[in-house]
Amino acid sequence: MSQMIGAESTAKVLTQPRGKVIAYWTVTLLLAGPIMLSGIGQLMRLEGNVELVEHLGYPLYVLTILGICKVLGAAALVVPGFPRLKEWAHAGIFFLMTGAALSHAFADGFGGNGFSVILPLSYAALNIASWALRPTSRKL
């Protein structure tokens, strides 16, 4: 004899506090926006990107590699679904930003007032905050 489950049994839906969701999207958009724009700028080789890469001692093709990685990583953070891809995007952005800070530190000696090191580290911190605040639907 089969048993029919009635309408009174419902699945428990896990919800997060509204403030945490707002904080997640604020931090994630503050991260994804500039990462996307800088990736596009690197792909188009706008403004000081060529001079910066040459100053750091990297070949120009690095702009294409970094640009593609940044655009895809920023898109992966905001597109719904794909939690494993989001984990990889967060890891990639973290390594990208800490690598940028180290490159500037070794090449510039920290630049003017340390801005060239502080900016990528601030993006790394935003990245960590976005990862920590992510909703359960975006976790593995």
Strand content: under 5%
Question: So what's the overall shape?
Answer: globular
pLDDT < 50 runs, ≥5 residues? 9-13
Radius of gyration: 20 Å
Number of helices: 5
Largest sheet at a glance?
Answer: none
The count of strands amounts to 0
Mean pLDDT across all residues, rounded? 87
* Terminal Cα span: 38 Å
Order of helices and strands: HHHHH
User: Would you tell me the structural class of the helices and strands?
Assistant: mainly alpha
Q: How much helix is in the residues?
A: over 70%
Describe the structure in your own words.
The model is unreliable at about 10-15 (pLDDT under 50). The protein has helices spanning about 20-45, 50-55, 60-80, 85-110, 115-135. The chain has five helices and no strands. The protein is mainly α. The two termini are about 40 Å apart.
